[in-house]
Amino acid sequence: MEEGNPRIPSCNKQPALSPSPSMSSISGIMRKAIHFPMKNKKLMLQVFILVLIPFMMLLLLHSLIVTPLMAKVEDSYENSSMNHQDLISLVIAEIPFAFAFCLLLLFASAITILASVSTHRGESLGPKGVLLSIKYKWKNIFVSGLYCSFIMTVFIGVTIILARLTALMGILAAILAYPYLASICTLMLVISTVEDECHGKRAFRCATEITRQGRFQGYFLMIILFLLSIPVYVLFYVTSTDDDDENCLITQFGFLLVATVLFCLTIFFNTLVHTLFYLDYKQRNGGQIEELETRYHSVPTSTNTSDA
Predict the structure, then answer these.
(1) Which residues contact 60 (CB under 8 A, 6 or more apart)?
(2) d(CA 153, CA 96)
(3) How many CA atoms lie within 13 A of 170 on its CB side?
(4) Alpha carbon distance 68, 158 (integer Å)
(5) Which residue from 89, 97, 53, 43 is spatially nearest to 68, judged by alpha carbons?
(6) In whole angstroms, how far apart are CA 47 and each of 14, 36, 109, 129, 264?
(7) Predicted TM-score (pTM) of this structure
(8) 82 near 159, Cβ under 8 Å?
(9) What angle (nearest 5°) sits at the alpha carbon of residue 51, between those of residues 119 and 32?
């Protein structure tokens, strides 16, 4: 493989954007994303179910294991008899759930990206093919996921420091920087999932360059998506951490199911928008989207085959 022949045009010298691309406007990208799942309703529904089920199982386990500990800590705090051992137990119990939640977010993003690319190309890639494609690309996805986690952790730390200096600086940093960094991280995951040879640091450079040459459309897209998603995120957080015993079990499960469905739809749509944004960028700059179908059909054999 030649090092000087990269597959992503956005990682190297970038041609100028065409003045009137087919989806250049933000509203055009949003409209495209709304109607896009209709191109392959069966696959998109199956992908959404594959995303929803593990999230629902994780939240059910969280409500059974962690929520009682949260209620215990809250009660002891209100009674001014805080038991530090209960607090430590709560933190220890939350760590594996937080880690699993991050992995599920990564999985949800990757499976949505691969299904969207397959549909965009008109490939007949089913759920099994998408999952096997993730198996093929998991290292790229995981490395970029670590980079995204590091970037957002640094951002949170800097925001807290600024907020301690002055609340206004912290608020401005959160409002202005978060949509940009979130857009960059989402584009990183898209690039790492679609392309074989671009992940981590290189994907970060590509994502920032695409955002700059795209006239910061990704930034404004993320602002719109974030504003639309705030009510869903708040509902999801309140429902997943609710320790109110007054509601019956069926009612709690119903609220949790509705909140989880809305949350998964939000993740699905946000990822889809950025995937279409990237695919549109590649098309306008003469890039070729690499086929996914052949990846999970190739099986290592003892006989060497030569490329045509």
Answers:
(1) 253, 256
(2) 17
(3) 12
(4) 33
(5) 89
(6) 33, 14, 11, 11, 11
(7) 0.78
(8) no
(9) 35
**Neighbouring residues of 247: CB distance < 8 A, sequence distance ≥ 6:** 255
Query: What distance in Å separates the CA atoms of residue 112 and residue 295, rounded to the nearest whole number?
Result: 17
Rounded Cα–Cα distance for residues 191 and 199 (Å): 7
Residue matched to tokens 């202005």: 176
Cβ-based neighbour number of residue 190 at 10 Å: 28
Question: Can you tell me the distance from the alpha carbon of 198 to that of 112, in angstroms, rounded to the nearest whole number?
Answer: 19
Tens digits of per-residue pLDDT, 32-70?
889 999 988 899 999 999 999 999 999 888 888 887 788
How many Å apart are CA 138 and CA 218, to the nearest integer? 25
The per-residue pLDDT for range 257-269, each reduced to its tens digit, is 888 999 999 999 9
Q: Are 129 and 293 a contacting pair, CB within 8 Å? A: yes
Whole-angstrom CA distances from 282 to 203, 264, 273, 275 are 14, 27, 14, 11
Dist CA 268 CA 122 (whole Å): 19
Calculate the alpha carbon distances from 150 to 94, 145, 224, 265 in Å: 19, 9, 24, 25
Rounded Cα distance, 77 and 70, in Å: 11
**Distance of alpha carbon 173 from alpha carbon 162, whole angstroms:** 8
Segments in the chain forming alpha helices (H): 26-35, 41-78, 84-121, 127-165, 167-194, 201-213, 217-240, 249-284
**Sole residue written with tokens 């994502």:** 207
Residue located via tokens 């093919």 = 129
Measured in whole angstroms, how far is the alpha carbon of residue 40 from the centre of its chain? 21
> How far apart are the C-alpha atoms of 275 and 47, rounded to whole Å?
15
According to DSSP, residue 79 is labeled T
pLDDT, tens digit (0-9, with 9 covering 90-100), for 121-148: 887 778 888 888 888 888 888 998 999 9
3-class DSSP assignment, residue 14: coil
